[in-house]
């Protein structure tokens, strides 16, 4: 990770150095350790008039952003007078040339010059320590992260020893450097990252939050990460990533209701734009027993082209409508999905929905298509046979033995699968009982009708004998009625007792 520094990051360094050219007398030394001495004056801490004049001219170039001219001047100054520099002059000149190189983005050259300035040991201890900070920053800029870590830790330790306030950016760079070494040391990065954020000042710094969020994420510390992300969505509510990360953190913590609420707010704000984000929200609607709203959202986004109208999403939409007990709305969705499917799963799902909606004939066709296409696992295949038997049986009338037999065959196939074996056996037992009751009833009716025929035929004979004794002829109407009844009884006798092998003739309307 390369730092994004401003071109004039070290301009304050140049200003401080220029001010030193005017120093003529020492300031009072502070009562602190030697490495903390902030004295800027004294015989060894001043520039000779000639060197001071040369630097003054070069500093004017720097103020006017004429860095190439300033660089050429510093090069000449070092070439011509470098051997006669005092330690303070050498440190000051190389420090200023490092500033010029930074502005020219020659970071390695700037690093070398700063190291020379530090090694010359001509500056006061406080300035030397500041140089260490700049050197560490440049090492970070150059992705020399281990070196940057050593330098930053040294500078922070000296600053704490000397009672100097630590720049929160130093903590930030140290934490960032720990995340960039191989392998990253996120545990070491945690403390400086938290300190950087705690000392950031009144204005929130997005980079600090992002870095600490990364560290918490890598350490799986959602207890701290969730509150941090809550702050981030408050500071930068337009950042969609923060909303989705907060939802994910809540979900990882088992706070699914909060995860759902966060996504819902983000969607209403127009921040959820990808299909996966919207589908996550839709799944939450189903999970929290509001499938209707999930179906409405999914259908709206599919129609708007924001979610693909592919088979998986069509299945999800049909499931949501079914969960919402809107079976009629789910049917055309599944029909669309199943139309071009090479496997039987979608036709199987369609058959289930049609069966629930009591569209038995269409359910039968869909389930037969599912079985014919195949490609389902054993569990779904067993269920398909069981549902097919149910669809066939539900279409049977009170004497529809063919449909009963067809349903029984489906249940017999369902017996071959473990998950449907018991239910299929119960159905077969029930159908056998229905069939037995049906044939028993037919045989009983046949026998009763035959007894009635025998009674009627005996009565006809008795009536005829009475007419013969009375020497009376029957009316034509009586003869016709009598003959029709004889024909009816003859036909019944010719038909014989009903049985599966001798079914009764179909009745009108059958």
Structure write-up:
This protein is mainly α. Helices cover 71% and strands 0% of the residues. The protein has 23 helices and no strands. The protein has helices spanning 11-20, 49-63, 67-81, 87-103, 107-120, 125-141, 145-161, 168-180, 186-198, 206-218, 222-235, 240-252, 256-268, 275-287, 291-303, 311-323, 327-339, 345-356, 360-373, 378-394, 401-414, 421-469, 476-495. Helix 1 (11-20) packs antiparallel against helix 4 (87-103), helix 12 (240-252) packs antiparallel against helix 13 and helix 14 packs antiparallel against helix 15. The longest helix has 49 residues, at 421-469. The two termini are 83 Å apart. Mean pLDDT is 87; it is low at 1-32.
């Amino acid at each position: 990770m390369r730092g994004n520094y401003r071109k004039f990051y070290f301009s304050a360094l140049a200003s401080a150095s220029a001010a030193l050219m005017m120093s003529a007398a020492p300031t009072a030394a502070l009562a602190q350790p030697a490495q903390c001495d902030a004295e800027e004056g004294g015989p060894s801490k001043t520039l000779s008039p000639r060197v001071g004049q040369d630097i003054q001219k070069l500093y004017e170039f720097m103020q006017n952003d004429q860095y190439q001219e300033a660089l050429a001047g510093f090069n000449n100054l070092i070439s011509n007078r470098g051997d006669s520099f005092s330690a303070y002059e050498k440190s000051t000149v190389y420090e200023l040339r490092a500033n010029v190189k930074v502005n020219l983005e020659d970071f390695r050259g700037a690093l070398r010059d700063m190291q020379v300035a530090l090694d010359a040991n001509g500056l006061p201890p406080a300035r030397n320590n500041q140089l260490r900070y700049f050197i560490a920053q440049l090492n970070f800029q150059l992705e020399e992260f281990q070196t940057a870590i050593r330098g930053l830790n040294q500078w922070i330790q000296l600053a704490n020893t000397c009672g100097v306030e630590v720049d929160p950016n130093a903590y930030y760079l140290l934490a960032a450097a720990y995340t960039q070494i191989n392998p990253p040391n996120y545990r070491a990065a945690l403390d400086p990252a938290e300190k950087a954020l705690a000392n950031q000042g009144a204005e929130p710094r997005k980079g600090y939050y992002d870095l600490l969020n990364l560290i918490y994420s890598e350490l799986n510390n959602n207890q701290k990460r969730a509150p941090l992300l809550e702050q981030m969505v408050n500071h930068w509510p337009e950042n969609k990533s923060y909303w989705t990360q907060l939802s994910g953190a809540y979900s990882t913590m088992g706070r699914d209701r909060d995860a759902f609420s966060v996504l819902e707010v983000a969607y209403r704000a127009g921040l959820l734009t990808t299909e996966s984000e919207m589908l996550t929200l839709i799944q939450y609607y189903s999970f929290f027993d509001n499938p209707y709203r999930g179906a409405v959202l999914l259908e709206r986004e599919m129609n708007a082209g924001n979610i693909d109208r592919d088979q998986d999403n069509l299945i999800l939409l049909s499931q949501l409508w079914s969960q919402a007990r809107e079976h009629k709305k789910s049917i055309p969705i599944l029909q669309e999905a199943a139309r071009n499917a090479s496997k039987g799963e979608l036709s199987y799902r369609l058959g289930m929905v049609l069966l629930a909606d009591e569209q038995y004939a269409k359910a039968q066709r869909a389930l037969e298509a599912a079985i014919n296409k195949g490609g389902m696992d054993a569990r779904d295949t067993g269920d398909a046979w069981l549902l097919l038997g149910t669809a066939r049986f539900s279409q049977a009338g009170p004497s529809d033995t063919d449909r009963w037999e067809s349903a029984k065959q489906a249940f017999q196939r369902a017996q071959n699968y473990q998950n449907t074996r018991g239910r299929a056996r119960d159905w077969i037992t029930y159908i056998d009982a229905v069939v037995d009751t049906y044939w028993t009833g037919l045989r009983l009716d046949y026998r009763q009708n035959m007894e009635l025929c025998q009674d009627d035929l005996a009565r006809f004979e008795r009536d005829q004998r009475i007419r013969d004794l009375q020497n009376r002829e029957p009316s034509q109407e009586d003869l016709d009625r009598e003959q029709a009844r004889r024909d009816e009884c003859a036909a019944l006798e010719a038909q014989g007792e009903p049985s599966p092998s001798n079914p009764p003739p179909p009745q009108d309307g059958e």
